[in-house]
């Protein structure tokens, strides 16, 4: 685990303080302050181009903001160099993308084991942990199958197993059900929110779809690179159970 120098004040798990980010003349983030508490699930919504993915990438240390600060676990991500930030992403964060981004040449269990092997776990232990995770989410029978031989929903569930196998403290998901039909999308969101809740991981989901956002306990709406609204969602539907 990487230790970040801590700030003196008590802090949420993850927070941005007035961050800005521009790409050339395009101001993607124009001063955003948000907080994500431990174990909380937060949806980020907003029109196309409003800065949702840029915010997600700044929160997860993939991008460095031009101004402002991102704190994780009480310390600024900017205190870490590139190598330390990469290690933090592998060891503390999990990622789920719209198309899963599984490696097509590897069977499910090797895709799931990969983040552990990249942080130094032996192949044998990483594969055992991957098999265990796949079994716990009801995908044991898929462990030898390559992504090209799975449905989109199955591949997304394997991607969730890969995101969760390292016991992340935060899972970042960018349109995790965006490429799926409604029923598969529902299953994927149920699995994602349930596994995060059981693991005590915070979840940050970028989505265009209010039905996806409703799986979360909070909704942050972004417009033109600033926070337009930040509210609790009362009817969080996070009641699915793991098989
Ligand atoms: N790497 C980049 N290079 C240039 N411009 C970028 C880059 N990444 C984002 N932008 C621009 O920054 C703005 C915000 O982009 P971002 O992807 O964060 O929006 P978004 O809300 O996630 O959009 P969408 O819903 O369409 O995915 C857009 O105008 C986009 O074109």
Automatic annotation (TrEMBL):
Which key words tag this protein in UniProt?
Answer: ATP-binding, Nucleotide-binding, Transport
Which GO terms of the cellular component aspect does the record hold? plasma membrane
Q: Give a yes or no for keyword Nucleotide-binding in this entry.
A: yes
- Is Nucleotide-binding a UniProt keyword of this protein? yes
Q: Which domain of life is it from?
A: Bacteria
**UniProt GO MF annotations:** ATP binding; ATP hydrolysis activity; transmembrane transporter activity
InterPro entries from the entry? AAA+_ATPase, ABC_transporter-like_ATP-bd, ABC_transporter-like_CS, ABC_transpr_LolD-like, MacB-like_ATP-bd, P-loop_NTPase
Domain ABC transporter: from-to ranges: 14-242
Q: What is this protein called?
A: ABC transporter ATP-binding protein
Q: Which organism is it from?
A: Brooklawnia propionicigenes
């Amino acid at each position: 685990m990487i230790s970040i120098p801590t700030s003196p004040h008590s802090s949420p798990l993850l927070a941005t303080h007035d961050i800005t980010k521009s790409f050339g003349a395009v101001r993607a983030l124009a001063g955003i302050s948000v907080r994500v508490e431990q174990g909380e699930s937060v949806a980020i919504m907003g029109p196309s181009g409003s800065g949702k993915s840029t915010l997600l990438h700044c929160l997860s240390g993939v991008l460095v903001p031009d101004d402002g600060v991102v704190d994780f676990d009480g310390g600024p991500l900017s205190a870490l160099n590139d190598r330390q930030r990469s290690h933090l992403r592998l060891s503390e964060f999990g990622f789920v993308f719209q198309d899963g981004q599984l490696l097509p040449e590897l069977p499910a269990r090797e895709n799931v084991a990969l983040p552990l092997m990249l942080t130094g776990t032996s192949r044998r232990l990483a594969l055992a942990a991957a098999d265990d995770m796949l079994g716990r989410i009801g995908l044991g029978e898929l462990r030898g199958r390559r992504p090209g031989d799975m449905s989109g929903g199955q591949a997304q569930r394997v991607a969730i197993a890969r995101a969760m196998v390292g016991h992340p403290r935060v899972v970042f998901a960018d349109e995790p059900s965006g490429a799926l039909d409604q029923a598969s999308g529902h299953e994927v969101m149920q699995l994602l929110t349930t596994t995060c809740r059981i693991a005590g991981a915070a979840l940050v989901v970028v989505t265009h779809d209010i039905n996806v956002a409703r799986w979360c306990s909070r909704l942050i709406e972004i417009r033109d690179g600033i926070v337009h609204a930040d509210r609790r969602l009362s009817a969080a539907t996070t009641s699915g159970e793991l098989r």
